Backbone:
């Protein structure tokens, strides 16, 4: 099946709309909510309602970050550019505006992406319209999701959850939380399941909000669960523990959400490159795409290298999304996209600050903010190092026990 990584024609209207929103709605309030950390960006309510309307009408497939559910298998062998491709391209445009504000969008969180990826049709309908955050990380571990200690014990018609989650994006503002917990610690990875927990559930408490380097517009919470009773129908996916299948069911969520985070890095880095090109031109630095880099100034040569790296991250992101749309296993490609785009995003934005010297370092421009924002995109949804480990395991055909 051939793959064409040009932007699909049918998605260009959505992408153009996302770019206009980024330029005219997000950029003007970007600095405001970077300074006013933890203050909710009320301007996003209207935008979220508009995205909900587009998705409801079917006018813009994949509008927002939640449209990542794979199509059911069919006999149709034609190439598809569906919700995954639409989502990553529109998310990249929105992050050209502001990453923290995108992460603050009601009903467009990574929890929504998780629900869209693995929930049943009945659950999809029941949780429709909910703003879902995602709670995985705990105080004693970071990227090793298999080390989860939060427990879920079946008691009648409910699961009883106990544990603590940290770095929960939109943890205070969301309506519900997708919580990863273990049904039986002795059975290891296979017993880890995800549950949709309503925020008003007794025993659920937002303990505090974190103060952060970047994405300051987005609230990041610590949440505890103390004998929190969750209806058993809120478990996402198969409730049975399949030791043979292992962790694959839970980890499948990441195959859809990692390309989204990669797209965020692509968009943020593109913003830095666009502004840096303008600032270099104002300073008299000419970037000539028809001449070898070695024959140009050091600044121009460095800029060309950054653009080349960025393009690699962009193409890997599109490939991972395309494979999901066409029902192809994309765990390797999703991790490759996240690893490349995450690293490139951080390298590009920081290098743009360096190229623009005092202008890049000051708050007169957004370059320094983008450098701060981009770092988290190389960390959450699995760090750079974890992605490289996953890629190595896939390429070498080794298990997590064989290659640690």
Residues:
């Amino acid at each position: 099946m051939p793959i064409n990584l040009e932007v699909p024609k049918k998605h260009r209207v959505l992408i153009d709309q996302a770019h206009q929103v980024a330029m005219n709605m997000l950029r003007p309030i970007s600095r405001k909510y970077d300074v006013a950390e933890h203050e909710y960006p009320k301007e996003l309510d209207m935008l979220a309602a508009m995205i909900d309307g587009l998705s409801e009408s079917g006018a813009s497939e994949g509008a927002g970050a939640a449209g990542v559910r794979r199509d059911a298998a069919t006999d149709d062998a034609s190439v598809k550019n569906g919700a995954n491709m639409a989502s990553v391209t529109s998310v990249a445009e929105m992050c050209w505006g502001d990453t923290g504000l995108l992460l603050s969008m009601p009903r467009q969180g990574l929890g929504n992406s998780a629900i869209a990826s693995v929930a049943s049709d009945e659950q999809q309908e029941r949780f429709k319209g909910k703003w879902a955050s995602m709670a995985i990380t705990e105080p004693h571990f970071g990227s090793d999701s298999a080390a989860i200690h939060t427990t879920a014990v079946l008691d009648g018609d409910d699961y009883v959850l106990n544990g603590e989650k940290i770095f929960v994006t939109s943890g205070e503002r969301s309506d519900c939380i997708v919580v990863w917990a273990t049904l039986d610690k002795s059975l290891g990875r296979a017993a880890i399941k995800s549950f949709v927990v309503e925020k008003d559930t007794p025993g659920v408490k937002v303990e505090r909000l974190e103060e952060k380097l970047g994405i300051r517009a987005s609230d990041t919470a610590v949440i505890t669960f103390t004998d929190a009773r969750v209806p058993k129908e809120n478990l996402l996916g198969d409730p049975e523990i399949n030791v043979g299948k292992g962790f694959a069911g839970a980890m499948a969520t990441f195959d859809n959400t990692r390309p989204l985070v990669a797209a965020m890095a692509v968009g943020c880095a593109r913003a830095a490159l666009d502004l840096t090109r303008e600032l270099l031109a104002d300073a008299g630095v000419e970037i000539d795409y028809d001449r070898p880099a070695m024959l140009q100034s050091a600044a121009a040569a460095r800029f060309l290298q950054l653009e080349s790296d960025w393009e690699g991250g962009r193409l890997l992101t599109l490939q991972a999304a395309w494979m999901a749309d066409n029902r192809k296993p994309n765990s390797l490609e999703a991790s490759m996209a996240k690893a490349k785009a995450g690293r490139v995003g951080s390298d590009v934005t920081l290098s743009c600050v360096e190229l623009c010297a005092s202008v890049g370092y000051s708050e007169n421009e957004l370059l320094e903010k983008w450098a701060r924002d981009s770092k988290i995109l190389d960390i959450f949804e699995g760090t750079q190092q974890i992605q490289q480990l996953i890629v190595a395991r896939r390429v070498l055909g080794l298990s997590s026990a064989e290659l640690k």
